[in-house]
Design goal:
Number of helices of chain A: 22
Oligomer: heterodimer
Distance between the termini of chain A: 44 Å
Mean pLDDT of chain A: 93
Structural class of chain A: alpha/beta
Order of helices and strands of chain B: EHEHHHEEEEHEHEHHEHEHEEEEEEEEHH
Radius of gyration of chain A: 20 Å
Strand order of the largest sheet of chain A: 2-1-3-4
Low-confidence stretches of chain A: none
Largest interface: A-B, 35 and 41 residues
Strand content of chain B: 15-25%
Number of strands of chain A: 8
Largest sheet of chain B: 5 strands, parallel
Radius of gyration of chain B: 22 Å
Order of helices and strands of chain A: HHHHHHHHHEHHEHHEHHEHEHHEHEHEHH
Strand order of the largest sheet of chain B: 11-2-1-15-18
Distance between the termini of chain B: 8 Å
Shape of chain B: globular
Shape of chain A: globular
Chain lengths: 405, 415
């Protein structure tokens, strides 16, 4: 299925609904807004020509496309125009680095203690900011000394499973938060899944959002080549990173323009982990043997989670946990939008975008925040001083799986 | 209990969903986009012209055609619906009732009869005589005080005297100031002080006059901003709803969403419903385009509030008018006359739409109920010409609530 993204701009009636939702435009005049940068400017753009650098201040949260009543693919138009802009004007070293988590991971993982020590110090962060422009206060994750893949190679699902699923863990679980990956596997196995964990790389999303489409496509194609044989064999794919899952479902096709039957097949059979578990719940097939988790937890659905269009399945799952008090927040975006909020010139914008969410969390006197996306969790945790967890971590706790391992 | 799904996030859909949630039904709103409330002025126009100017909407209803949706709903249901909205959204401080119309100035200075409006907008009711100063900020190019003042002065239906004032002041570094950008600037105390000082200077003495400003007095902190600006200008201040983005409309949308969230209703904005899954002739679920696939959302009852021809609830195709979600029968398709001209007059296509029964259930060409658990509301309905009658929001509200009541009386979709 090919998608006519650019053609959708003809549907724009300049109603400005997108402007009333754009979280970036609300806090800075540096970004003129989705309508102006999107359908309005697009009419003046020709391939290879970049008309306007203000586009770079779009965080790519995608809210504009979601709220557009006329079906204009505003965020996708802007993402493509950004790639043209980067191609025409060049891409800073910083953007080339932070958009390659597998490269960063491979470099940092063997020397994780040293890398983490450097980035934990004020002086180290100042040096990084001066050298490549990553803001000294931006939340950057620690690297794990052991990758999730190295754990997975020695892990086998227990006997007695009744169904299978292929786990697409993403770069964050592999290099930064292998514990989240292990918990995802445990929750799935607890529900009778044999979890297959093939070797896999980056989905290409950070490269895409930084405007480097050609290398992004290479990553996406390589990942799809890893996953497609399993899907053809009848397995579904589950992802716990909302944005990486969305890349496979939609963005690689609609933004990168990859027209490939294997991608379409994998996308159609990829499920967000909360989406999959909620489907089990609806089918009466989810284990609900849960112990109380007496905590007060605001739930923030990341902007990329909204992009899935399936609502907020995490809320249905968290509602099953006894004594867990969940507060649904209603903010469009935490501000970080992947790598946007890491950048020296954009970090203040990311903090201003997230400020209402951080205030909601502070007001809730919460124990921690729940959020599906890793970069959002890191940003929110840093800004609020409270831990931020994936909803599946709360399920893991409620199932009492920690005690077994 | 199986969820009730409301399709559409305009006034009909959101007020229907809120009434359902209040009634204890689990509700999910699914909408292609965030609706159209942000485009309007947050006024509830119940009935403004028939075709002469209407002063008392409820009393004018018996004179409407037999197939008008208000005739089906009855004046009592309309009155109850408007009362419900005023009471249900206290944060908006809505004023007025369907008993009588106030006369407001539009952003072009036309006289608009409307029944209900937020307090700061209702304060601009031009039935009250006296001097009215229309004032704005020149950077906001869609609000020209001199035009508003001249047109209001020329109107034969009101007797106010008017003058205009335009402040020369930069707004927050915006390249292209929109009402929303200006409203956000008004929420920042230093910016507000700068803007009001410039307005005060442009206005001069406002002794005994009311000051009409574009509706930009804050978004989320509206009450605080409105009070501060009124203090700073030393006069009673009212708001005139602007062209989109309409800040007053944003406030109404956010107020409805906040109440829905508080009632734990679910909102899925950005996904399009494309078909229904049936169980016999009942709707068992709606098929929705989501990322990567089409997903079926189980539904005990469905309310379709997707709007009329302007918003895609009805589409015009070479073969005629079509209801695109479920392929429902569109009544009163004027045939070839649909291509006739009719700018500024009633057009043959205006009154086409879905025919419904008293429970707001769509009927087929033979007049039979299509699906017993399907209801419709808002601009989808046949028989009205909202743009001519100034009846759009009143119809949306009254039919949305009527659909909700019908669903609740059938057991909230739990059947």
């Amino acid at each position: 299925m090919t998608v006519d993204i650019r053609g959708s701009l003809d549907n724009c009636v300049k109603c400005t609904v997108c402007e009333t939702f754009c979280p970036v435009m609300a806090v800075t005049p540096l970004f003129p807004g989705p309508k102006y940068a999107g359908p309005q400017s697009e009419r003046y753009r020709r391939p290879g020509e970049s008309v306007d650098a203000s586009l770079d201040y779009c965080s790519g949260c995608g809210i504009c496309t979601q709220v557009c009543p006329q079906g204009v693919d505003i965020a996708e138009i802007n993402a493509r125009a950004r790639a043209e802009m980067k191609a025409a004007r060049g891409m800073p070293l910083r953007d080339r680095l932070i958009s390659r988590p597998t490269v960063l991971g491979r470099l940092a993982q063997p020397v994780a203690p040293v890398a983490n020590a450097v980035t934990r110090t004020r002086i180290g962060r100042r040096a990084v900011e001066a050298a490549i422009g990553i803001h000294r206060d931006a939340a950057i994750p620690a690297f794990s000394g052991r990758t999730f893949q190295s754990w997975a190679r020695r892990h086998g699902s227990p006997a007695g499973t009744t169904r299978t699923v292929v786990y697409f863990h993403g770069c964050a679980a592999n290099y930064n938060e292998p514990s989240v990956g292990r918990m995802a596997v445990a929750v799935l196995e607890h529900n009778g899944f044999e979890v297959i964990i093939p070797p896999q790389g980056c989905c290409g999303l950070p490269l895409q959002s930084n405007g480097a489409f050609e290398p992004a496509r290479e990553y996406t194609r390589a990942l799809v080549a890893r996953l497609a044989p399993y899907v053809r064999a009848g397995h579904m794919v589950v992802a716990n990173s909302t944005s990486c899952g969305l890349m496979l479902k939609r963005e690689a096709r609609e933004i990168l323009g990859i027209d490939d039957p294997d991608l379409a097949l994998v996308g159609e059979h990829t499920y967000d982990i909360c989406e999959l578990l909620r489907d089990l719940l609806d089918a009466g097939d989810l284990r609900t043997d849960m112990r109380p988790v007496p905590m007060r937890v605001p739930y923030h659905q990341p902007c990329q989670g909204r992009g899935h269009g399936f609502g907020k399945p995490a809320l249905d799952l968290l509602a099953l946990i006894p004594e867990l008090e969940v507060i649904e927040t209603d903010r469009e975006c935490c501000g970080v939008a992947g790598t946007y909020g890491l950048k020296k010139e954009k970090y203040p914008i990311a903090m201003a975008v997230g400020a209402p969410l951080f205030a909601d969390i502070a007001e809730a006197r919460a124990d921690c925040t729940a959020c599906d996306s890793e970069t959002c969790r890191w940003h929110i945790a840093k800004a609020t001083g409270l831990p931020a967890v994936h909803p599946l971590e709360l399920l893991y706790q409620a199932y009492g799986l920690g005690a077994q391992r | 209990m199986t969820r009730v799904i409301v399709v559409g996030a305009g006034l009909a859909g959101l007020s229907c969903a809120l009434r359902l949630a209040d009634g204890g039904a689990p509700v999910t709103v699914i909408a292609t986009g965030a609706g159209s409330l942000q485009l309007g002025g947050a006024t509830i126009d119940v009935l403004g012209y028939t075709p002469g100017l209407v002063h008392r909407p409820l009393e004018a209803m018996p004179g409407l055609p037999a197939d008008h949706p208000y005739t089906l709903l009855g004046a009592d249901r309309v009155a109850a619906a408007t009362r419900w909205l005023v009471e249900r959204l206290p944060a908006l401080d809505l004023r007025g009732s369907a008993d009588e119309n106030m006369l407001l100035a539009s952003a072009l200075g036309a006289i608009r009869p409307t029944a209900i409006a937020p307090a700061t907008i209702a304060a601009g009711d031009l039935r009250t005589a006296g001097e009215v100063i229309f004032a704005g900020v020149r950077a906001l190019k869609d609000f020209v005080p001199a035009l508003v003042a001249a047109n209001v002065a020329a109107a034969t239906t009101v007797t106010v005297t008017t003058r205009a004032a335009d402040a020369e002041v930069a707004v927050r570094g915006d390249r292209d100031t929109s009402p929303l950008g200006l409203a956000r600037a008004f929420e920042i105390p230093d910016e507000r002080a700068r803007l009001t000082a410039a307005l005060r200077q442009a206005i001069g003495s406002a002794e005994g006059a009311r000051i009409g400003l574009p509706a930009v007095l804050g978004v989320d902190r509206h009450a605080e901003v409105a009070a501060a600006v009124s203090d700073a200008l030393g006069a009673e201040v009212f708001e005139v709803p602007t062209a989109p983005p309409s800040v007053a409309g944003v406030r109404l949308y956010r107020a409805l969403i906040a109440e829905l969230r508080a009632r734990r209703a679910r909102l899925i904005v950005g996904s399009t419903v494309v078909a229904a899954t049936l169980d016999g002739n009942r709707i068992a679920g709606l098929d929705v385009h989501v990322a990567g696939r089409t997903r079926t959302f189980p539904a005990g009852a469905v309310v379709l509030a997707t709007g009329g021809l302007a918003t895609g609830g009805i589409v015009l195709e070479p073969a005629g008018l079509r209801e695109p979600v479920l392929g429902l029968h569109v009544a009163d398709d004027p045939g070839e006359a649909r291509y006739g001209d009719g700018a500024f007059h009633e057009h043959p296509i205006d009154r086409a739409g879905l025919r419904v029964d008293h429970a707001m259930r769509p009927l087929d060409a033979d007049g039979d109920v299509v699906h017993p658990n399907l209801h419709a509301a808002g601009a989808l309905l046949r028989g009205a010409a909202p743009w001519l009658e100034l009846s759009g929001n009143g119809l949306a509200l009254a039919s949305g609530l009527a659909a909700a009541e019908a669903v609740l009386s059938e057991g909230g979709g739990g059947a």
